[in-house]
Specification:
The chain has 173 residues and is α+β, with helices and mostly antiparallel strands. The chain folds into two domains: 33 residues; 134 residues, no CATH class. The chain is 18% helix and 45% strand. It has one helix and 13 strands, in the order αβββββββββββββ. The strands form three sheets. Strands 6-5-4-2-1-13 form a six-stranded antiparallel beta sheet, with no helix packed on it. A hairpin with a 5-residue loop joins β4 and β5.
């Protein structure tokens, strides 16, 4: 009978220690491990006079609420986690998708230019997003002044596909 009594208390003690260990571990993880960074997204939408469209998703840290999120050519973007650009023809068919910034890193495109005022939700300065090699599309110009969609053929010749007077809509996601 004593043996059963001791076994029961030993089992209870082991369970209690395991529970305590798990509780302490959980509490420590709250203080020692930083929370996963959350992101905020803004969607850019451009439509040319001929009906072509460019849509881009800009993702930046949710803690970044004022200032300029930017990328200029090859290098580490400033406060940009991701920039994905999609190009559509006038019938709404997707022509191309470009990952200009992935996981806070830009590709090897020297052309890339984007300056986004997070607080004001406005583009600033020169814009050049999209593809960079033969048979790619890219949008470039100055918001509020004029933006052109170009096609770069396999030989490197740029052809203007569409244009608007610089109008771009931005929607915070």
């Amino acid at each position: 009978m004593v043996h059963c009594f001791n076994h029961h208390w030993w089992t209870v003690l082991k369970q209690w220690r395991l529970g305590l260990l798990l509780s302490v571990g959980w509490a420590l993880s709250l203080f020692l491990l930083p929370p996963a960074a959350l992101a905020t997204e803004t969607q850019l939408h451009w439509q040319g006079d001929q009906g072509y469209q460019v849509r881009a998703n800009l993702t930046y840290p949710d803690t970044f609420t004022t200032g300029i999120a930017a990328i200029e050519g090859v290098g580490k973007p400033k406060q940009l986690d991701a920039v994905t650009v999609r190009v559509y023809d006038p019938e709404g068919q997707e022509l191309a998708v470009y990952e200009n910034v992935v996981a806070g890193q830009s590709g090897q495109d020297d052309f890339l230019q984007l300056h986004f005022d997070v607080g004001q939700q406005q583009l600033r300065g020169w814009l050049d997003i999209g593809g960079a090699v033969g048979e790619d599309y890219f949008l470039k110009g100055q918001p509020g002044v004029g933006l052109d969609l170009f096609y770069l053929d396999a030989q490197g010749k740029e052809t203007k596909v569409d244009h608007n007077d610089g109008q771009v809509s931005l929607v915070a996601g």
